[in-house]
Design a protein that fits this description.
about 425 residues, 18 helices, about 5% strand
């Protein structure tokens, strides 16, 4: 057998092997067992399955085209060219598997006892935290999963996936150590804030304002350069505060309470503010959104945990510049009216007036008398109320954990039943239209 024929035969077998292995990548609906209450909502399931199916079909078409090309070459095949084209196919195949594994890691946890149902409940919480009345954007499906580590993270919807294509859903990684309690709201709502900020293009609308402050508008140009560097994380913290109030700051303290050297580290390449400044800024933003003495108490507590004494030289001067410019930054953030919000500020769009501490306390007292009302409330409001009660010393951690577990199960069941009822209604209407 000639070398071109031998190379063509071997590459043909390898390409067909790719097709055989690709055929074993089945839809999640066929391979993942879970109770209905733990399942993804249909729009999320459909978005993921459709995206992966399109990738498989594209790869199948590429392999079939390659096999046809090989057959047409016959004795004329250049082995190097044949290998080059096959290597491209294999890389594409591995990228398809990478995307499958990305979603598989998320969906597999839905079959875990209790955790799967809680994750479904968190999906409902995240969706509520992202929703804004006014139709400013079309919210993508949001799905949550658990992982190790103290902080959460998000792979935003409509961002590029490994191997190509846009992510069809927002995927939020929730730290296991945050389950279960109102503190999880801080991490979850912060990541939701990243998605919301992207949908509203908040970061890009704020950057020119921050750059103007660097060039003579606000003094301390080095501090304003850092605020611009950190603005994505700052906006996400603002979103979290607007959704769950003081629980956002308390949860943040829980995440960034690290050895002193890390708390005061100023890394200009890190998109996250220095933890010490980040907590101080959270208190300042909280005070602007929800005037109340609790912010001053939290700020003094944080300073007692990590006193600034001992920090000297240029680093101390920069911390002082950041603190001095903080009030101007907060004023800019809460007054900013991006084009996407059609003249409204973010606090107005997120309706922070309805989540002032006094109102949250009134909700807690009402729910103590009539607990069933709590189960009817919006999930993000429930987190805000319970977080305020915890901050006020009215709710013990063990009580909070037990209550949050029951609420997550309730929200998972409610979303499952609502979806089932909607599907049944649509099927009934379809039958009527068809004359069945």
């Amino acid at each position: 057998m000639s070398m071109p024929s031998f190379a063509a035969a071997m590459l043909d077998q390898e390409a067909r092997s790719l097709l055989a292995r690709l055929a074993r990548v089945r839809p999640f609906a066929l391979i993942e067992p879970m109770v209905p209450a733990a399942a993804l909502l249909p729009e999320a399931q459909l978005a993921i399955e459709s995206h992966l199916a399109a990738g498989r079909h594209e790869l199948q078409d590429l392999v079939q085209a390659y096999l046809r090309w090989l057959a047409a070459q016959a004795e004329r095949l250049n082995p190097a060219e044949g290998q080059r084209r096959f290597t491209f196919l294999r890389l594409k195949f591995n990228a398809t598997l990478t995307q499958f594994d990305l979603f598989n890691d998320v969906i597999t946890q839905r079959s875990e006892h209790e955790n799967g149902v809680w994750l479904s409940g968190l999906d409902a919480v995240a969706a509520d935290a992202l929703a804004i009345p006014g139709r400013y954007f079309t919210a993508p499906p949001v799905i949550c999963y658990l992982d190790r580590g103290p902080g959460a993270a998000i792979r935003r919807a409509r961002t590029r996936l490994p191997g190509g294509g846009d992510n069809p859903v927002a995927i939020i990684r929730v730290p296991r150590e945050r389950m279960v309690g109102s503190g999880i709201a801080s991490s979850l709502f912060h990541e939701v804030g990243h998605q919301g900020a992207a949908l509203l293009d908040l970061v890009n609308s704020l950057r020119p304002l921050l750059q103007a402050m660097q060039h003579g508008g606000g003094g301390a140009p080095q501090a304003w350069r850092l605020w611009e560097r950190w603005i994505s994380e700052i906006v996400a913290d603002l979103w979290s505060l607007a959704r769950c109030g003081v629980a956002a700051t308390q949860g943040l303290i829980g995440v960034v309470s690290l050895p002193r050297a890390f708390v005061f580290r100023l890394n200009t390449d890190d998109p996250h503010p220095s933890p010490w400044i980040r907590v101080k800024l959270s208190c300042a933003m909280g005070r602007a959104l929800y005037p109340h003495p609790q912010w001053a108490r939290l700020e003094r507590l944080w300073e007692a945990f990590y006193p600034l004494q001992g920090i000297g030289g240029p680093e101390r001067a920069l911390f002082e510049q950041l603190q001095a410019s903080m009030a101007a930054l907060v004023g800019l953030l809460v007054a900013h009216r991006p084009a996407a919000l059609r003249g409204r500020s973010l606090p107005e769009a997120l309706q922070v007036a309805a989540r002032q501490p006094r109102r949250l306390g009134a909700w807690f007292r009402l729910w103590n008398r009539s607990p069933r009302l709590m189960y009817r409330a919006a999930p993000s409001l429930v987190f805000a109320v319970l977080g305020q009660a915890r901050a006020s010393g009215l709710l013990a951690p063990d009580q909070e954990a037990a209550l949050m577990g029951r609420l997550l199960r309730h929200w998972a069941l409610r979303s499952t039943f609502d979806t089932t009822a909607l599907c049944a209604t649509q099927q009934h209407r379809s039958s009527i239209l068809q004359g069945v």
